[in-house]
Every structure is written in structure tokens, then in C-alpha cells.
Amino acid sequence: MKPSSKNNRILILGGTSTLALELAKRLLDGKFFYPILTFRSQSGQNRINHTLAEHCGKFGTVHFDLSNPETFNECVRINSSYIVDFAHSDYESLIASSDPDKVAEYFNTNVSNRAIFLREVSRYMLLGRFGRLVYVSSAAAVRPNPGQGFYAAAKTASEILYKSVGCELSSKGVTTVNVRPGYIRAGRGKDYLEKHASVSTDYIVSEKDVADTIIFLLSDSACRINAAEIVMDGGMSSLK
Amino acid sequence: MLQEIQSIIEEILDIDGNTVTPETYVIRDLDAESIDLLELAVALNSNFDVKIIDEDIFLRSLRIYVTEARENGEDVIKFLLGRYPFITEERAAEILDDMENSPVLKVKDLISYIEWRKSF
After folding, report:
1. Which of A35, A71, A231, B62 has its CB surrounded by the most CB atoms within 10 Å?
2. For chain B, what is the largest distance between any 2 Cα atoms, rounded to a whole number of angstroms?
């Protein structure tokens, strides 16, 4: 897939996650894009550099912390035409046993701050009259397991933010799409699947599946898929 | 500055920029919609390198402020000058006279805002 914009930079938020690194590898194999992955800590930056070592010089890294809007400016100024957002902090708790302070902080980081970032970055994209944003949500956004209530609420709210940008700015060339992967044998999903061996392999999505789908969604062929949600769970959520 | 704003408006609204004067109403005459105003704000920010608060430059809360001032028995013009420090007393009076035919935003308000921002 070649970038339709002259600007071939893809900003990958949450760049240290397994899925983000898989996406970066596949983009680098394609040779058309210059991925820029975000990190929150030195160890995160080291992880990116180590994982993508064979592509040295063909990707970038930038500090970004969703909990700290002061770090947004540098990412916005990269002026990338493409953004893939994996960023999400972790907070699993039953609603009734949650810590009110943590709840407030969680939504401030994952929803309010994301809205601020989207505001800034979409204004930049308007200038170039092109922007393609992919938000990596989760099938749990609409079907949370016990303990995933806050995660699901934040994911759903974030989806609506992206969807709204796609609705509001598509006439100016800025479009968005939400991807909802189901069970993935990576990150949080890996731990879950180890504890719940009963999940059929038919419903388990690989990192490669997610990366390839995102790459398609970044392509010109997918540009009319706007302000939409793509569910990737092997059909599990459609069953009774 | 007018020339630059004419050029920006021409690009965004696909009209002849030379027809735009300081007295042109941005919404009433040019039919600018909210998405156009957003693009205008972004372009003004980029071209003039000044911070743009969309809410202020487009006088979005004008009616709320006028109502608030009247309800509190305050001098409406002074109240508006406090909220919109980039407009003159004369312009505030003109806006009040013109409010029945709203929206009142003119190109000269954009110019005043940018000049005010540049003065910092």
C-alpha cells in the first residue's frame, strides 16, 4: 500500500504494545511508510528500538503520555497524515469495588485527554486537507466481561470521539475508523486466554490479522470506510 | 492583512477573494458554515502564527453575554469589551444595533482579533 498523501509518516500511539510493533514491522516491510512510534519511558523506547533493530533509521520514536497533555505538542507537530491509536492505560475492577479517584483519573487520561489530542491533531490535518485515523478499540467496548466496565466505557467514548471527527471533517479529507479486535493472544488478551482455555480458536485473532486489517484501512481502497466500526472477532459477538 | 485573509477565504469558501471587504459579514454574506469557520480558524492560526480561540474570534457567545449583562443590569457595551477585548467601543455599539439581523461577525472582527493577538 502506497500512501496517498505526500506525507508518508504514520504516528503510532501506544507504540510499545505488541500489536503496535507488529504493525510497524509490517509497514516497514512494505517500505512506503515511515512509522513513528510513541513511548512513555526509556524502557519503552528501548523495546521499540530492539524490536525494530533490523529497520534502523527507517522509523522514528517520540515521547507521548496520554496522561500528560504537555507531551502532545511534539506528536502533533510531527504533522503525520496517518495516525493509529493503540494508547490505553489499564484499570480493571468491578464497578462496585472501584476506587473513585482512580476512576476519575482513568477517564481523564483515556477520554478527556484523547479528546484534547484529537482536537489538536485534527486541526493540523485540516491544514493539509488529508488525514486518516484508525482507533484500535476492542470487542469488549460493547460486550465487557466482568471487571472491564471502565475499560469498555472509555473505549466506547473514545470510539465516539473518533467517529465524530470522521463525521465532522470528512468533507475536508479527514476520515476515521474504529477497529474492535476480539480475543488476541497478546498483551492483556494473552493472560485472559491462558485462564480461559475454553475460548474457541475460531474466535482468536492474531497480531498479524490486526496489523494487516489496519494496513488495509489506511489504504485509499478503504477511504470510504469512515466513522465506522470494524469488528474482528471471528463472528463471536454475532452469536446468541 | 486583509489581502491574506481574502486569500484564505477564497481558498476555503471557493469564492473570489477580491469581493471580500472588512465590512463583509462572514456568515450572513459568505454563507460560511461551522466546518468552514473551523478551517478558517486553523488557517488564521497557521498563517499569522497567533493563538486562535474559536469561541472568541467568531463571537460565538455574543448573545449569551448580552443577555447576561442585561439580566445583571450591567452596561452591555462595557460587558462586551470585557469579554471581547479586541473589539472597539464603536464596534460593540454597532454589533448591538445589528443583532436583530444576526449573525453579526464581519471580516474586520477577524482582523481586529489577529491584530490584538499579535500585540502580546
Report:
1. A35
2. 44
DSSP label at B103? -
B43 to A127: CB separation less than 8 angstroms, yes or no = yes
> What digits encode the pLDDT tens for the residues A174-189?
999 999 998 887 776 7
Q: Which residues of A touch B (CB under 8 A)?
A: 123-124, 126-127, 168-169, 171-172
Residues 6+ apart with CB under 8 A from B75: B69
Q: Which domain holds residue B18?
A: 2-118
Could you give the CA distance from residue A49 to residue A45 in angstroms, rounded to a whole number? 6
pTM above 0.80? yes
Q: Do B35 and A168 touch (CB under 8 A)?
A: yes
Is residue B107 within 8 A of residue B43, CB to CB? The reply is: no
What is the end-to-end Cα distance of chain B in Å, rounded?
A: 17
Q: Which CATH number does the domain housing residue B35 bear?
A: 1.10.1200.10
Residue A183's H or E segment, with its range, is strand A183-184
CB atoms within 10 A of CB A233: 21
- How many domains does the structure of chain B reveal? 1
Kindly report, residue by residue over B35-65, the tens digit of the pLDDT. 999 999 999 999 999 999 999 999 999 999 9
Question: Is residue A238 over pLDDT 90?
Answer: no
